[in-house]
Automatic annotation (TrEMBL):
This is Translational regulator CsrA. The gene is csrA. HAMAP family: CsrA. The keyword Repressor applies. Gene3D superfamilies: Translational regulator CsrA.
């Protein structure tokens, strides 16, 4: 894992076209802005996990 220290307004570039910017720090919370191409899905980890669990629980061919 790469660990970086950034200040508000500073960015991290990932590959070609993904930009991560620190937009605010307040107490123990950090606001992060992410710009990515439309074909790259960006989710919070807990949301991505729920999506994955839902997809695994749904039987193949359900609804037909």
């Amino acid at each position: 894992m790469l660990v970086l220290t950034r200040k508000v307004g500073e960015e991290i570039i990932i590959g070609n076209g993904i930009r991560v910017q620190i937009t605010a720090v307040k107490g123990d919370r950090v606001k992060v802005g992410i710009v990515a191409p439309p074909h790259i899905r960006v989710d919070r980890a807990e949301v991505a996990e729920r999506i994955r669990e839902f997809a695994e629980a749904e039987p193949v061919g359900a609804g037909r």
